[in-house]
Specification:
Structural class: alpha/beta
Number of strands: 14
Number of helices: 15
Strand content: 5-15%
Helix content: 25-40%
Bound molecules: pyridoxal-5'-phosphate
Strand order of the largest sheet: 4-10-9-8-7-5-6
Shape: globular
Low-confidence stretches: none
Largest sheet: 7 strands, mixed
Mean pLDDT: 95
Order of helices and strands: HHHHEEEHHHEHEHEHEHEEEHHEEHEEH
């Protein structure tokens, strides 16, 4: 790659030329052997791998290459992680600088941590600038739970059906426990953690006479639940701004503004878990920015370090002192490589005008998906903002019966056609790298549409 390309925002184009490039059947022979060798020992892999056991050895920009030399268009960003492209030169360089200079200094301040703190404070809304750093999403969520208790002096939490917040015990207490085959967490929801229904505009529990979702009824239910179903000690609502694992399900526009009012009325903190949706994926630093709501607590992960494990938990500066009670120090949180990755990622979002790209190509995605919805009998709904997208497959548009078998098949077929992406239940989920332009966005959607068409034929739809 020439030096001038590395420095320009087009650094990823050279490696994308000619994709998808498939030179063996997929998964190919080397993948098959490597997967078999690995799974002799490694157990409990995700559905993503089980349904398409390919082995990767390289990623560049919007592409991933498997061990047989097949090159795929990436529509998953790892798993919502490498949002600025695989191995972004600026980010890789920043990490390797510190990998050679200072890898760990516990929670002492380092020059790169100082810069990251200033940068984060400059992009976050309101007074969200009391920060702690961790190394995966679920530990940041655990910290947020501790912070909510420390700030409020209360101990109950309300989350929502189909939300996901991680796999440690506090996070599991706020999350959907049944995840396809994974249902053996057991009775681990801690005392004082509750779940309530969350508005899904396509499948409203409460709707207005015109059939559209009735947000006020959800809020009324929550208020009643706070009064009748808790002991009056609710520390926080714990919610994803948009449900990622749940199927790219966005709430109606009036939901978070109304929920924030309810929270303020009962002095309940609003904790916004942006681990999946934050840092530009929906076209804003925080997805809640779309609705003009500033949360009391927010967590970041995934895209935050573009693949390097670094996460953050942030609260309002007025509550910063309470964080003294929940010590931030951990073995890896805020190490210099992690800070460098996060700082470089934020700088790339600014320097390459990523938010603008996400908003404009995001509109293209939505237009294309709406067209597909009209043309395909099994597409019940399409949803998304920016580059966080979903296509909901149903057996019948009237009954809206989820079409899980079709989702699985579409996932496998599209992968075989050269699209590396995320498996579905009945909702196809897409999270392409945010650097992608319309040409490659269209290429990915073409592959998905072809796969849907084939599946419709197989199931006897016209
Ligand atoms: C909203 C949300 N919070 C927390 C997590 C947990 O993050 P991690 O897998 O890094 O522990 C996830 C992971 O998918 C997530 O989607």
């Amino acid at each position: 790659m020439s030096n001038s390309i590395i420095k320009s925002k087009d650094w990823w184009r050279e490696s994308a030329a000619g994709i998808p490039r498939l030179i063996t059947e997929t998964p190919g022979p080397k993948s098959k052997v490597m997967h078999a060798n690995t799974t002799k020992y490694m157990k409990g892999l995700s559905g993503q791998v089980k349904l398409f056991p390919v082995c990767f050895e390289e990623g560049s920009g919007i592409t991933m290459t498997d061990v047989d030399g097949n090159k795929y268009l990436d529509f998953s960003s790892g798993i919502y992680v490498t949002s600025l492209g695989h191995c972004h030169p600026k980010i890789s360089e920043a990490i390797s600088y510190w990998a050679k200079k200072l890898m760990n200094a516990h929670d002492f301040t380092t020059p790169v941590k100082e810069k990251l703190m200033e940068k984060m404070a400059s992009i976050l809304p309101g007074k969200l600038n009391a920060i702690q750093l961790y190394s995966d999403g679920t530990t940041a969520v655990e910290a947020a739970i501790r912070a909510a208790r420390a700030i409020s002096g209360k101990h109950e939490f309300i989350s929502a059906y189909r939300d996901f917040h991680g796999k440690t015990l506090g996070s599991v207490s706020c999350a959907q426990m049944y995840r396809g085959e994974v249902q053996s967490y057991g009775p681990t929801r801690a005392a004082g953690f509750y779940m309530v229904p969350r508005p899904d505009p396509y499948r409203p529990l409460w709707s207005k006479p015109d059939g559209t979702i009735d947000t006020d009824e959800y809020i009324r239910f929550y208020e009643n639940f706070i009064i009748e179903g808790t002991v009056g000690n609710v520390a926080a609502f714990v919610l994803e701004p948009v449900q990622g694992w749940g199927g790219s399900i966005f709430p109606p526009d009036d939901f978070f503004p109304k929920l924030k009012k309810l929270c303020d009325k009962y002095k309940i903190l609003l904790y916004d878990d942006e681990v999946l949706a934050g840092m530009g994926r929906t076209g804003e630093w925080l997805t809640l920015n779309h609705w003009g709501v500033v949360p009391d607590i927010v967590t970041f992960g995934k895209s935050f370090g573009n693949g390097f494990p670094v996460t953050a938990m942030v609260v309002n500066e007025e509550n910063g002192e309470a964080l003294e009670k929940i010590s931030a120090s951990s073995s890896y949180g805020g190490n210099p490589m992690a800070c460098a990755a996060a700082l470089a990622s934020i700088e790339v979002i600014e320097e390459e005008d990523i938010l603008q790209n996400v908003n404009s190509v995001g509109k293209f995605f939505m237009k294309r998906m709406l067209k597909m919805k009209k043309q395909h009998p099994i597409i019940g709904d399409v949803k998304g903002k920016g580059f966080l997208l979903g296509i909901e497959l149903v057996k019948d548009k009237k009954t809206k019966e989820p079409f899980v078998e079709a989702g699985t098949l579409v996932y496998q077929k599209a992968f075989r056609k050269g699209l590396a992406w995320i498996p579905a239940g009945h909702i196809l989920r897409m999270s392409p790298p945010l650097i992608m332009d319309e040409k490659y966005a269209a290429m990915g959607m073409d592959i998905i549409e072809d796969a849907i068409t084939e599946v419709e034929k197989e199931f006897g739809y016209k």
